Amino acid sequence: MPSVLPDGEPMPEDGALPATALAGAERRPLGFYLHVPYCATRCGYCDFNTYTASELRGSGGVLASRDNYAEQVVEEVRLARKVLGDDPRAVETVFVGGGTPTLLAAADLGRMLGAIRDEFGLAEGAEVTTEANPESVDPRYLAELREAGFNRISFGMQSARQHVLKVLDRTHTPGRPEACVAEARAAGFGHVNLDLIYGTPGESDTDWRASLEAALGAGPDHVSAYALIVEEGTQLARRIRRGEVPMTDDDVHADRYLIAEETLSAAGFAWYEVSNWATSPAGRCRHNELYWRGADWWGAGPGAHSHVGGVRWWNVKHPGAYAQALGEGRSPGAGRELLSAEERRVERILLELRLAEGCPLELLRPAGAAAAARALEDGLLEPEPYGRGQAVLTLRGRLLADAVVRDLVD
How far is CA 62 from the centre of its chain? Predict the structure, then answer.
């Protein structure tokens, strides 16, 4: 969750949505994202809306504390119930992200999940995920999470090489994420993800292969691999600007992606989104698929984004301002935008083209359709799905996904 919020129109104090947003809601999946904005330390590459202990004094002297944070999220879940009214949908996915959610007690994460269960109900077979820092969990904590109802967990591994972790300012030691996978399995988690980052300054192809092999050796059923993006204002960006560490280029990122695809495919993983691989359809992250398919989700927590029926809104950034709004009985929403039909069309192309199923060619305007035909000739789109009316990226197309998307959206 990037730390910079967009502009938009003011959010009503009661959080009310226009009637058009709720029309036909019963036909759309509903998920919840719960943001935990706390971190023990700030990683050098991170631009997310997160806070360490020294950064937590909020607006008007309101003290934002981890101790009462779960109750604040519970209050926003209750607000969601009021705003969505008699919406009959049970929640299909819950994702707790951060920050470091596992800095909170497992009982607190359970209380937040319990509020969703009480107010909306969880659909049969609902996916309930939390992110976790490998150094912030142990077997007992994982068992408590599982007992609370979590059935999927995502560990931030990033790399198996100590010198790479040092550049990223990651605090865990090599080998700990792999051990966490075994501990999560023993606790009863059916689905486990490891997050990896490639393209860190100083990382070699050999380092990257070692990270992939270490991840696979741990036995997850899902792996996410993201190219490092150097965000302005981060410690890493300042170090690169001072010449302390080198910067990798797009060609290096492309080589690392090809290594990931080769290694993961050989191990029985299949890509289902440009940066995500799973051993089976059941191993896919269903919550992220809600985002990529434009379904409905409510994001609770400071800076969290939500989307319901073509209305997108976002909460105030700072935990202190968030706590103050809820304490005064107001929505913590900072702003919103009502997406036009054209904006929703463009977003469908942007998001669905990244999926293995692709996006329907019927979404394209004439210029975009012509661009798709050229992409097919250039080997960027798969011929067989194209014949069925779907634009699906080839491996080479995945390497150039951003450029293909730009062409297809006119």
Answer: 29
